[in-house]
Amino acid sequence: MELNLPTLLFYGGAFDPPHNAHLELLKKCAKTFAEAKIKVFVDQTPPPLGLQQKTPTGFEERKTMVVLTLEKLQEINETTSASIIIEKAASKPQYAIDRLKTQDLTLDRPAWIFGDDQWLSFDKWKSWGEIASLVNFVVFPRLHSVERIKQKYEALFTPWGEDLYFTQNWLTRKTNRQNKPRIFIHTKPTSDVSSTSIRRGEIDLEASVPHSVATYIKENSLYNTNGKHL
């Protein structure tokens, strides 16, 4: 069956810091969407009045850590032809819809990559309906079940009914009915790691981020055990 996989994917976040769950997510995307270009947006600063907490780490520091994470991905993912690039910094805080409007979306409908917490709050994003008219969705469970993710999609858009298709650890819809966005849900949870827990010193740093990122954090004294920027 031809699934018409997206050939352009977007992944945004503060990445404060990037960690092994981010790496795992990108690795799975690069494997499944092997012909895709994946664009990573590092937030200049979190949007004001948004759901993200204020980041204590500068953009250049976070961008450097993302570069180190992507270098690790290239080491372990040599067989894929997926192209992963970091988009240039915005001159001011931007929401997802602002980022999308700077992109060439004339190719096949692209997709936005979500963690489950981002997905379950998607209808609180600025202009989420407009975003849904522009992209499909790729969602990874971490703390929430595949069924919960699926229910959120149905609440926002349309019931799936019998329109289900399982392939290579993914759940998706067979068709794109009524021009509603497609969704691809990975059926296996990603690692239970969060940037907040790392900043607060609640979990082991070396076990939570690539070694090069852990070294960078220590050499630059980015966080202490109280989760404060030094």
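(ticket continues) Second input and output from the same batch:
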Amino acid sequence: MKKIKNIKILNHFIIILIGSFYLVDVLLNFKISQDFGLIPSKALGLNELYRVITYPFSFFTIESALLFLFTILLLFPFFEVKFRKPTMILLLFGIILFQGLLFTSIFNQSDIILKGTDGISFFIITYFILNNLNLKQIKLNPKSFHINAFIILISISWVVTVYLHSKFVDTDLLTPSAFSLIYGISLGLIVDLFIKFYRLFQVLINPVKPKMSVPSDEDLMPAEISKPERKHQAGQSEKSHFNEFDTDYFSEDRLNQILDKINNEGKKSLTQEELNYLEEYSKRL
């Protein structure tokens, strides 16, 4: 319960922080956008390198703000469960900094302005979908939607509205929007692959040995078992044997669940079945 509460606090803090800057930016006739937006020619030519980390605080478009609100409210709590709060904050800072540096290096002599949080939004969307492919439906009255299909629908809506918006303004919206889209998706794929390979490497170099429990005197004492009980135990034994060596039993989702449990609660929290699972999984690699 405490972790969920902390997630909500960080969740609301991000919305209030970014939303406050956006509101002030609009009220000041986009004065913050002029000072905080990432313009590569100014960042390099006028030594205004601070722009590589301040651009998310400048208002871009209404569709960009709505997409960020959607990802923070709906997806961020699921996303943060996989990371500790300091790691999450450093990761978000790294996403912002790396996107700013990459944009500046590619468009180094250009006056194209990078603003908003689209890169962060699409990173969260990509990572979320890759780690929740089997997530169940969510109910949005009066119908139910598969959450990943709903996310893709929202993303497509963002692409369409950005394209239509660009037809009615003089500034270039398509270039920074396309850059943020490609950057967010690419970085989400890279981070997801890196984490999965890192966890698999941890299992290979540090295999978890199953604990050998010492039977008590009561366990060693023979007991009378009725025929129905013997039949039931035999069926349970065959079922357990089948589950342990069935190919579908050794899935990547199951492995990620056990590894998450080790990270959150330690190796001592694993059950005997989970220890056997890791041992058998490492033998199959």
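Agent notes: The first strand starts at residue 137 and ends at 140. The CA atoms of residues 226 and 232 lie 10 Å apart. Closing as not reproducible unless the customer responds.
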